[in-house]
């Protein structure tokens, strides 16, 4: 079944193709108009429009050739009525030539802008690889896959985060969602991930790792000042998979619960026994973090995600329900799982996601 997003993409591709052929169509229409109408009627609007439309859509060479073709067509239709062009004919030829030169200038401006945009995208991709590197396919004996889907097309990184670290205490993971958007959120993501990687290696318990993240965010909020000093926070879930042990430890700080996908197709949300505030809001209340322990059998897959998955809406306002959608499925590898989920959410929202989405899947072989 073809989704609305795929239909929209097909429509956009068709529109771009039509736009590329439009300059030639305008020139042919102009020639036909001038041939079929009396001499006082002019087709100059068709001839001037052709190079202007070609300028932002085509190369400089194509734009120049379009301008030349429009100029030749303008002269040819006037030569049909008189051997020696009159003042009106000269004026129209000069007008088309001037517009063709302007179109060439517009083309260069657009190309420079495209090059700068491409450079900015390369920088954004490099920033994403530096802040959110793709984890290895196998870490500490577990199969790993991650996926980041930005809500805004052309955006590579936002306020969602994930990280995986193999430590002396087992494989430790974090998935989180920073309050806010833009570069401020990206800076907070970098702080959280940097603090997690350091704490995951040094702290003996998952609760202590959460405490280090809390303090790191508090320092970042004070440094940035403004509203972030009081209202900056990050929802996060931290997981620990001890080596050679079929257990799973979780600390959830205000984040959507992970899903445990069993080998027989059963899906179980892994909920925290006690509610806890997000990271960065410790001054509002004090409570001891307690890691909840669960069984993580062979062949099972743990799916950690941000609310971009569970709160994705379709055109009728219906949420995407990952628990219902995944029930009954057999997961053989985490890579295809996150890719399939990302595609399904895009189809569910019609390509109009309103929030970023981070997915991290871990499978015990």
Give me some keywords for this one.
elongated, 365 residues, disordered N terminus, 49% helix, five-stranded antiparallel beta sheet
Q: What letter string, H or E per element, gives the SSE order?
A: HHHHEEEEHHHEEEEEEHHHE
Please state the average pLDDT score.
83
Shape estimate: elongated
Number of strands: 11
Strand residues, percent: 15-25%
How would a textbook summarize the main sheet? 6 strands, antiparallel
Q: Oligomerization state of this entry?
A: single chain
- In terms of per-residue confidence, which ranges show pLDDT below 50 for 5 or more consecutive residues? 1-8
Radius of gyration over all CA atoms, rounded:
29 Å
Intertermini distance: 33 Å
Describe the structure.
This protein has 365 residues and is an alpha+beta fold. Helix content is 49%, strand content 18%. It has ten helices and eleven strands. The relative contact order is 0.11.
